[in-house]
Specification:
986 residues, Rossmann fold, six-stranded mixed beta sheet, five-stranded antiparallel beta sheet, 43 strands, Putative Flp pilus-assembly TadG-like N-terminal domain-containing protein, vWFA_dom_sf, Tad_N
């Protein structure tokens, strides 16, 4: 039994032990508290380091305007982010920022992995530049000393802490798939349904033109049989489709004074090339492109004889409004240039803008009989004070005063003289000699307003021919005077444009010649030259064209076409030759001769060689025979005849009652007809390809390219670890069966690929500023299909998607020089744009060989009905193949795609253009089909639902061109910003 004293002794011995235990307990509590606070501090350090790394990395960019990838602001933002965070109860200080480093998150082709090989300390200085490419990684390191709260009793006053974070731009490989099919030019179609699609009201309204204005000025859009809109075009004025095409062509002033000399190679820099068709820039104001309202020009100081090299050029195209009516304007003061159509009473009216009414003082003369004041009754010509006295038969009738003086004759005064002095019978030569004022004398051309240029067509044609020395020579005009008097260098009149610019079917001068007596004269020139039925003004055969005479005429008077023509590295012609003989001249001159012969054929509307330019789809359609100009071309023989004893019995220069079909834009040489010629293939013509340059504002193709140009710049600025490639598609084009640009970060190459010929891109990307390409060869066969990035061909999207698969698959079987260098482990993004629904598909072979899987052996396209599954399914199949998992090995037989376990391929379809616009095309039959097709693409490409019937509204791009460009850029920004573009890897 323990005694009380023993118990006291025991308790006494336990007290030191308890003291020791309590102290130990407090030590453990102190350690737990301080370590807990250390853990909190460590977490807050990591949060601050993560935030700083992410913020700094996101600040890095590739913007050309930034210095060193915006590195200095990135470092500043990192420090600001750290000092804005709290470490326990106090904010971090800059002293706690141990280090900021920058690097490049690059792909190692050997290990096929991403990593940062070298870090550069930029804490204090941000002058270090990346070896190549961009900075794409930031590493932040924080250090901090955490004071202890309890452990200092044990002599521990603080504990170290800190954190490190690495943020990188996630690597993405992107393929753009762009629609370059013919429908991408539907808002820049020249003709449709045999009438103009140009809404520009600056058209001729004199003579017969005033009767067919509805064929010359488009007041509403057209629609095809499927309700697809064919919008009014933007050839000469801004429309919802885009700015004026006419302003996008240029010329080199090197041969300004010698147009027959080839201006090749180009000698001027891009900045010194002159506008080819908008030869001067009259001040303009107003206008509303959305509602087809043109701007208003101030034509003050206009000079039709300027060529564009003057210090302040004032002409020749566009020409003033007053040229629409062949009248003179007073505000500003401008005198009409060229030959004015006579009114039916024989007068020249310089102030009355009224044409095509019933009054003879305002309407145009339909025939020479009407112009000279005679009448036709059956086969007889009648005159006299009552208009009923028979003079002779139509086949014999001639007026020697008119045939002597032509349009220099004061016809109205002559008609009065006949009435008062000669019973309205033809006078003897010299019996009436009053002529018009010198300013009104015949010049051999008429000018049109705006961009119409000039024409020699005038009815009736001036009768004067010959009278000088030797045989009249239209290839040797006298250019000594200005305005040029229509004579040759031997003094022969060259006024009758039929004889000046046409020869008989044997290539020699017409048999029937005024002033030559011939009792056996064959039928007149008109019967061989003009179409006696419907269609174009000219007959299909029976004559040849005097090309040399036309070319000489083009180089006299107003120079409405430049001596060379180019756009977007496409050379259309380098000179205006003197003839079309391809057996002489340099290689460039031979090509020029080929071009000009075909263009002249086109303007005349003829069937020559293998070309057939008689389609109603050209130059605003067929010829017209409107009221007051009823067609009549008499094929009977013209017979020699003399009225008075002192007349010589000769053949009339024409049948005075002839009234052939009147042309619309045919016979007009100028920007309008030439632009139609360059885009000829869209009307089913003999050219197999659209020759509009890729820089031309051809809508809606141009809208897409303008938007994409902005998109590429935006990606460059904000996504420095994205690699991009580009492919285009249109049926039956071998140039689209390989990428336009392989995957890379060559932003200049990507932008150039939107506008310039494929074969020239390498040189252009390297800084070449002169190389050009002809779109045709000496056979006038097209070499431009798919070479020029413009609208042409059918819609076969599976070909563009298959090339995009190859761009991103990284197959060792594909040449890196063409396809670039896709990166295994980078997520894959495909952006597929189209304006329609498939109507063709490409035939190809899918080679399955692990991650060497690729598409090859493209053959010709197969066309079926628009929207048919046979055309839509192949495109969906390619996207489905993209969504297969990327194979882990290159072993043969593996079915490889582009998806990764943590990064499935994403395919974003974009609906672009009028088909998808219910306002522009309210009754488009194929809009639901097209949207369903794109919804299926989205579903197969992991960006849409399998049950959807359309795509996201922000991926449907419609509206006026400014809106489309803006919407496309916003749409792309949303796509590129989707997901995490910057991420932590440490």
């Amino acid at each position: 039994m323990m005694t009380r004293s023993s118990r006291r002794r025991r308790r006494g011995s336990m007290l030191p032990l308890m003291a020791v235990s309590v102290i130990s307990l407090f030590a453990f509590v102190a350690l737990a508290v301080d370590l807990g606070m250390l853990a909190v501090s460590r977490t807050q350090c990591q949060n601050a380091a993560d935030a700083a790394a992410l913020t700094a990395c996101r600040t890095l960019n590739n913007n050309p305007g930034s210095t060193n990838n915006n590195l200095a602001p990135a470092v500043t933002n990192a420090k600001t982010t750290v000092t804005s965070n709290v470490n326990l109860s106090a904010k971090f200080t800059t002293a706690q920022f141990q280090k900021i480093e920058v690097g490049q998150y690059l792909y190692n082709t050997t290990s096929q992995t991403f990593g940062v090989s070298t870090w550069n300390d930029v804490t204090s200085s941000q002058t270090v530049t990346p070896p190549s490419g961009s900075w794409t990684a930031i590493r932040t390191t924080l250090s901090s000393t955490q004071p202890t709260y309890f452990m200092n009793v044990l002599g521990v006053t603080s504990m170290p802490t800190g954190a490190q974070a690495v943020a990188v731009y996630k690597p993405r490989d992107v393929a753009f798939v762009l629609d370059m099919t013919g429908s991408m030019a539907y808002a820049s179609t020249f003709n449709y349904n045999n009438v103009s699609l140009n809404p520009d009201p600056m058209v001729p309204s004199f003579g017969h033109y005033g009767l067919v204005t509805s064929n010359l000025v488009a007041t509403a859009n057209q629609y095809d049989s499927n309700g697809q809109v064919i919008s009014r075009n933007n050839f000469t004025m801004a429309t919802p489709g885009g700015p004026p095409i006419v302003r996008t062509f240029v010329w080199d002033p090197a041969n300004a004074t010698a147009p027959s000399t080839s201006a090749y190679p180009v000698t001027s820099t891009t900045s010194s090339l002159l506008n080819a068709f908008h030869r001067w820039s009259p001040p303009e104001s107003g206008g509303d492109s959305t509602n087809y309202v043109p701007t208003t020009y101030d034509f003050t100081g206009y000079n039709a004889y300027h060529i564009g090299t003057e210090a302040t050029p004032k002409g020749p195209t566009p020409a003033p409004y007053s040229f629409q009516t062949m009248t003179d304007s007073t505000s500003p003061a401008i005198t009409y240039v060229g030959d004015r159509y006579r009114r039916a009473d024989g007068s020249i009216n310089k102030t009355d803008t009224t044409w095509a009414t019933g009054a003879s003082s305002t309407k145009a003369a339909a025939t020479a009989i009407e112009l000279l004041g005679y009448n036709v009754s059956g086969s007889n010509v009648r005159g006299g004070t009552s208009g009923t006295t028979t003079i002779t038969t139509v086949d014999k009738f001639r007026d020697t005063v008119w045939e002597t003086n032509g349009y220099d004759l004061d016809v109205k005064a002559y008609r009065t003289w006949k009435t008062n002095s000669n019973s309205e019978k033809p006078g003897d030569p010299g019996s009436f000699s009053t002529q018009v004022a010198a300013a009104d004398k015949f010049q051999g051309f008429s000018m049109g307003p705006g961009y119409w240029g000039k024409t020699f067509f005038m009815w009736p044609p001036d009768p004067r021919w010959g009278g000088g020395t030797g045989t009249p020579d239209p290839t040797s005009p006298n250019t000594a005077s200005n305005p040029v008097i229509p004579k040759d260098t031997n003094g022969n009149w060259l006024c009758d444009w039929r004889r000046r610019f046409f020869l008989n079917s044997s290539g020699t001068s017409w048999t029937v010649t005024p002033g030559v007596s011939s009792a056996t004269a064959t039928a007149g020139v008109d019967a061989s030259l003009f179409n006696t039925g419907s269609g174009q003004a000219l007959a299909g055969s029976g004559y040849t064209i005097n090309y040399a005479a036309v070319l000489k005429w083009l180089k006299t008077g107003p120079q409405v076409l430049p001596p060379n023509l180019r756009a977007g590295r496409i050379l259309y012609y380098s000179s205006i030759p003197d003839d079309v003989n391809t057996g002489t001249g340099t290689a460039q001159q031979v090509l020029d001769k080929v071009f000009w012969r075909k263009y002249i054929d086109f303007v005349f509307g003829t069937k020559v060689d293998t070309n057939n330019y008689t389609s109603a789809g050209y130059l605003y359609g067929v010829g017209d025979s409107p009221a007051g100009f009823s067609q009549s071309v008499y094929a009977s023989n013209l017979n020699p005849w003399a009225l008075n004893l002192n007349w010589t019995s000769v053949t009339p220069y024409m049948n005075y009652a002839d009234s052939p079909l009147r042309p619309r834009l045919h016979f007009w040489f100028g920007p309008l007809s030439l632009m139609n010629f360059l885009q000829d293939s869209t009307q089913g013509g003999p050219q197999s390809s659209n020759w509009m340059a890729g820089t031309v504002s051809e809508a809606q193709c141009w809208q897409l390219k303008a938007g994409m140009n902005s998109v590429i710049a935006d990606v460059q600025a904000n996504h420095p670890n994205d690699f991009m490639g580009m492919t285009m598609f249109a049926s039956n084009s071998t140039n689209y069966q390989v990428p336009r640009v392989g995957t890379s970060q060559n932003y200049t190459a990507l932008q150039n690929a939107l506008f310039y010929p494929k074969s020239l891109l390498s040189g252009i990307n390297s800084g070449n500023v002169t190389t050009e390409e002809r779109p045709y060869n000496t056979s006038f066969s097209s070499v431009a299909e798919g070479e020029i990035p413009n609208a042409n061909g059918g819609t076969n999207p599976n070909s563009g998607l298959a090339v995009a698969f190859n761009l991103l698959c990284g197959s060792a079987s594909l040449p890196a020089a063409t396809y670039g260098a896709p990166r295994r482990g980078a997520s894959k993004l495909v952006i597929f744009e189209t304006d329609g629904v498939p109507n063709a598909y490409a035939n190809y072979t899918l080679t399955k060989a692990g991650y060497n899987t690729y598409y090859s052996n493209f053959t010709s396209d197969t066309g079926t009905s628009t929207g048919a599954q046979a055309c839509t399914q192949p495109a969906i199949d390619v996207v489905t193949q993209m969504n297969q998992q990327l194979a882990s090995t290159s072993s043969s037989g593996t079915n490889s795609g582009l998806s990764l376990p943590n990064a499935p391929v994403r395919v974003y379809p974009i609906a672009f253009g009028d088909l998808f616009d219910p306002v522009a095309a309210p009754n488009a039959t194929f809009r639901p089909t097209a949207l369903q097709f794109l919804a299926n693409i989205a579903a197969a490409g992991n960006t849409g639902s399998s049950t959807a019937t359309t795509i996201n509204s922000n991926q449907i791009i419609t509206g006026p061109y400014e809106t489309r460009i803006s919407l496309l850029k916003t749409c792309m920004q949303n796509i590129f910003q989707s997901g995490l573009s910057v991420t932590l890897i440490q």
